[in-house]
From TrEMBL:
GO biological process: carbohydrate metabolic process; cell wall organization
Keyword line: Cell wall biogenesis/degradation, Disulfide bond, Glycoprotein, Glycosidase, Hydrolase, Repeat, Secreted, Signal
Claim: Secreted is one of the keywords in the record: yes
Gene Ontology annotations for the cellular component aspect, listed alphabetically: extracellular region
Catalytic activity: [(1->4)-alpha-D-galacturonosyl](n) + H2O = alpha-D-galacturonate + [(1->4)-alpha-D-galacturonosyl](n-1)
Protein name, as recorded: galacturonan 1,4-alpha-galacturonidase
Catalytic residues as annotated in Swiss-Prot or TrEMBL: 271
PROSITE patterns the record matches: POLYGALACTURONASE
EC numbers for this chain: 3.2.1.67
Family note: Belongs to the glycosyl hydrolase 28 family.
């Protein structure tokens, strides 16, 4: 097997040695399937099979070793993290200079769990206080793990630390910032301190064959905010063929996510595939547009398909994160959605955190929702809201346009007829059994 060859040939090599000739486990032929994006991904440049830079397995801090290997192999080579090796990153690792390079992760990457150290050292972003241990950016980059490579966030330390400081920064396990073209595939990701993945300021990226899970060892300090993926200010991203076992959004589309396909995912225990929340901040303009969510198996979740929008607020409301932000959510399709034991099969709200429906109606959302289709939904919800299986709540018909359902066959666990809460909806476009809240 190639992986043993790798171990044998490379075990004794020093950092970033250039080895020839050598048979490198190739980047698999990654196909966007079954749906393909309207803008095809750009073709990457050819790689030189003999340009291989091994990340020093002995480095006490794998961060600088990884950066140095990436510099040596930039423009056409492949960086390799050896199998049966644990690489520990103990300092912020900026990999945003990448250009036509592949990174093959066969070992395990962990990040030191020195919570205090990372508070001031992690790469920080204003948006939702996102922090990163490492960040990937550049052009034409493939990060692949062949189902062997693992990223381990040592999350329990962070979830425990959170109990004594709710606002401490917990880094996202994997993040791109300014990645144009490329892929992330075949990686195992476990125990992220916070979200598992954030895709920011990126375009034309295929993400496939990722396995995400959480192991809690201290049940009195459970995980929090463990989203599978969040997309932000990104265009033409495909997330597919992956399994996600977590406790927050399976995938979440944050402001300015456009041309996104999410397909063939198996999500368990999550908060669903979510647009938003959006419209939280006055003076900001959020867009989520042209999103296709196809063939999702969702189990044990609070929600299946979810769109969460903050209502409007009285003019010049100051202080807490209260809503009133502008923008639009447009052309979103959820098709082929299998529900097992989810509390709501669909939850659309334009009254997110509103104190009451009356308060929400009085200040309708400023953020428009239009051209939304929920199609071919199957399965059974949990008994939580039985006989209700979903909820569609707008703040005013004028800001909620062309929201449709088609072939919705979701049942509650009892034998009762499924009921849907519909508020301020154009019920002529809905083929579901609407009831008042
Ligand atoms: C909690 O963590 C934040 C972020 O590191 C820090 O600014 C704040 O001082 C911490 N609070 C306490 C009480 O330690
Ligand atoms: C488990 O979590 C609790 C609550 O945060 C904490 O008091 C305790 O120290 C943790 N136990 C360990 C072994 O970390
Ligand atoms: C991705 O798809 C292939 C076959 O199409 C399958 O063998 C593999 O297990 C899938 N991976 C995940 C994580 O679902
Ligand atoms: C999103 O795009 C709109 C329109 O270009 C822009 O006004 C807004 O600032 C962008 N928001 C973010 C978070 O980039
Ligand atoms: C849906 O995804 C599952 C994997 O979760 C896969 O086995 C199945 O073939 C997919 N169906 C379609 C129609 O693509
Ligand atoms: C799904 O999540 C539940 C907890 O919510 C867990 O008990 C179960 O083992 C998970 N399933 C898989 C396949 O990991
Ligand atoms: C809606 O989005 C899909 C991608 O999800 C795209 O193919 C289609 O062209 C978009 N429709 C319009 C009218 O823009
Ligand atoms: C849902 O949760 C139950 C109970 O925790 C578990 O047995 C089941 O395997 C989960 N479903 C999936 C698909 O993981
Ligand atoms: C809101 O505040 C802005 C400037 O802070 C002011 O120009 C505007 O008149 C105020 N609007 C209302 C309705 O009070």
């Amino acid at each position: 097997m190639q992986r043993y060859l790798l171990t044998a040939v490379l075990a004794a090599t020093v950092a970033t040695a250039v080895i020839t000739p050598f048979s490198l486990p190739a980047l698999p032929n990654l196909i966007t399937s079954p749906k393909t994006s309207s803008t095809p991904f750009p073709l990457g440049a050819a790689r030189h099979p003999s340009r291989i830079c091994v990340v020093d397995p002995e480095a006490t801090d794998a961060g600088p070793a990884l950066i140095s290997a990436a510099h040596d192999c930039n423009n056409g080579g492949t960086v390799v993290l050896l199998p049966d090796t644990t690489y520990t990153i103990t300092s912020p690792t900026d990999l945003t200079f990448l250009q036509s390079i592949d990174i093959l992760i066969l070992g395990t990457v962990v990040f030191s769990d020195d919570v205090e150290y990372w508070q001031t050292r992690a790469f920080g972003y204003a948006y939702q206080d996102v922090h990163l241990f490492w960040k990937f950016g550049g052009r034409d980059v493939n990060i692949y793990g062949l189902g062997i490579g693992t990223l381990d966030g040592l999350g329990q330390t962070w979830w425990t630390a959170k109990r004594s400081n709710e606002t401490l920064y917990r880094p996202v396990l994997f993040g791109t910032d300014g990645l144009a073209g490329g892929s992330v595939s075949g990686l195992n990701m476990k125990n992220s301190p916070f979200w598992f993945n954030v895709i920011m300021n990126s375009n034309d990226v295929l993400i496939t064959d990722i396995n995400i899970w959480i192991e809690v060892t201290n049940s009195s300090s459970p995980p929090a905010n463990t989203d599978g993926w969040d997309t932000y200010r990104s265009i033409n991203i495909v997330i597919q063929n992956s399994t996600i076992n977590n406790y927050d959004d399976c995938v979440s589309f944050k402001p300015n996510s456009t041309d996104i396909i999410v397909q063939n995912l198996q999500c368990n225990g999550s908060h669903g595939i979510s647009v938003g929340s959006l419209g939280q901040y006055q003076g900001e303009y959020d867009i989520v547009e042209d999103v296709y969510v196809y063939n999702i198996s969702m189990s044990n979740a609070s929600d299946g398909a979810r769109i969460k929008i903050w209502p409007g607020v009285p003019p010049n409301t100051t202080g807490s994160s209260s809503g009133g932000g502008a923008g639009y959510v447009r052309n979103i399709t959820y098709e082929l959605f299998h529900n097992t034991n989810n509390d709501w099969a669909i939850e659309l709200t334009q009254c997110y955190f509103a104190s009451s429906q009356e308060a929400c109606n009085a200040y309708p959302a400023v953020l428009l929702i239009e051209d939304i289709l929920f199609k071919d939904f199957y399965g059974t919800t949990s008994k939580r809201h039985d006989p209700r299986v979903g909820t569609l709540v707008c703040s005013d018909p004028s800001v909620c346009k062309n929201i449709r359902t088609e072939n919705i066959a979701v049942s509650p666990p009892s034998a009762a007829t499924a009921e849907w809460i519909c508020t301020n909806m154009n019920e002529g476009l809905l083929d579901i059994n609407c009831v008042a809240a």
